[in-house]
Amino acid sequence: MDFLAYMYGLSKKRASSIAMHNSGTRTRLVRSFADALRDRGISVIAEVKYATPGDGDLGLMASPTELARDYERLGASAISCLTEESYFKGRLSYIADIGSVTDLPILMKDFIVDTSQISVGFNMGADAYLLITEMLSMEELEILYGFGKELCLDVLVEVHSHKGLEKALRLGTDVIGVNARDLATFQVIPTKHEEMIKDLPGSVVKVAESGISSSDRLLELGAMGYDAALVGRAMTDRRKRKEILSCGSRYAG
């Protein structure tokens, strides 16, 4: 199964429902996601994630608010919130829950294919959102990127290959995420971060995604030139969470 193509279709179907129920007004000030990651050595974006397509339920019992408080206390620079329901057990309402207990910037992480998803994320309190270059056409990327920028939101543009990177560079984004996971097999390609870093412009905020489960790897990524690491699965283990977040905090200091 082409997972990205499948999620594209599923997200398109959901977008119409989201548009009909997009109510409420944002009360939270917009925080700069990009600025929170810049010039700090190696920052950590700690993720609120309850399941994955490959592993199913991750067994995480803490609520989004409990996790957000812990992430901030341990030194996270930003929080990523999964809002996709079927495979990641996320909810859009988690963004508002997290925003009620922390001032850290919040990234809405989903398979975004429609401006209605960005609108509801904005109203919930998201400060940034994810766009996946390999899932979207150049025209779609430009529309979705421009829509959020008009709302003063940052955009993490995710790439999985040099072809995706070409799109990101054409888009002119200032935050690029290199995801080392192959979304066809769900396997992490350990050398992906090393392979891609040399082609990322010095002016962009460079974010490493997937396969980051230790403080040693975090420091390696910082030495390579990455500004931040988005850590998901390892955040479900509190010992690992404390190790990685405290390491990022020390590096920043």
- Using only C-alpha atoms, the radius of gyration works out to 16 Å
Q: Multimeric state of these chains?
A: single chain
Give the uncertain stretches in residue-range form.
none
Classified by CATH, the class is: Alpha Beta
Spatial strand sequence of the major β-sheet: 1-4-5-6-7-8-9-10
User: Approximately what portion of the residues adopt beta-strand conformation?
Assistant: 15-25%
State the major sheet.
8 strands, parallel, barrel
Q: At the fourth CATH level, what is the homologous superfamily? A: Aldolase class I
Describe this structure in words.
The protein has helices spanning 3-20, 33-37, 64-74, 93-99, 115-124, 138-150, 162-171, 192-197, 215-224, 238-252; strands spanning 43-48, 51-52, 56-57, 78-82, 106-109, 128-132, 154-159, 175-179, 205-209, 228-231. It has 253 residues and is of the alpha/beta class. The chain has one domain (3-15, 32-252): TIM Barrel. The strands form two sheets. An eight-stranded parallel β-barrel has the order 1-4-5-6-7-8-9-10, surrounded by seven helices. A two-stranded antiparallel sheet has the order 2-3. Strand 4 (78-82), helix 4 (93-99) and strand 5 (106-109) form a beta-alpha-beta unit. The longest helix is centred in the N-terminal third of the chain and has 18 residues, at 3-20. It is globular. The N and C termini lie far apart (44 Å). The model has no long low-confidence stretch (mean pLDDT 93).
